[in-house]
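Predict the 3D structure for this chain.
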Amino acid sequence: MTSNAKAEGRFDKRDVIYIAKADEYQCPAGERAIYRFTTLEKNGNKLRVYWTSACPTCPLKGQCTTGDYRRIRRWEHEEVLERVQQRLDRKPVAMTLRRCTVEHVFGTLKHWMGWTHFLTTKLEHVNTEMGLHVLAYNLKRVISILGIARTMKAVRLVGA
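Done. Predicted structure below.
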C-alpha cells in the first residue's frame, strides 16, 4: 500500500485532496479523479480505485506517476485513519509520549498473542482476555524488578 513517490520527488497521496461529497479526488493539476471500481484484497480489505482520464496529457504527469495513469486507492474505512492523523497533527508530542510509555507493552502483549488477533469474540470476552494479558505482563514486570522471593513475600503479605 505504501508508495516511494515522495522519496523519488513525485506527488504522493497526501498531495491529492479527497472530496467526500462527490466521492472524488482532486489532483495537484486540478483534475478530478473519479471512482472507477472496488477491489478486494487478500486480507478482506475493500479498496475503492480512482483516476482521471486527463493523465496522459497532463503537464504535471512526470511529477505524479511513472505509469499511464495515476491510480488512487482508498480503503473503505480510510476516514478513520484521516481522523487519527488529524488528531496526531494537532498534538505531535502525544505520539512521542505514547512510544515511550505504552508501545513497548502493546508490542510485548502482541508478541505473546502470536502477533495476531484475540482468541475470543464479543467485547466482554476480549476485555477478559486483554485483562489476563495485562495481569501476566504486570506480574512478569514486578518479578523482574523485585525478584521472585520479594514478589512472593509481598503476595503472602497481601493474602494474609
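Residues 102-159 form one domain.
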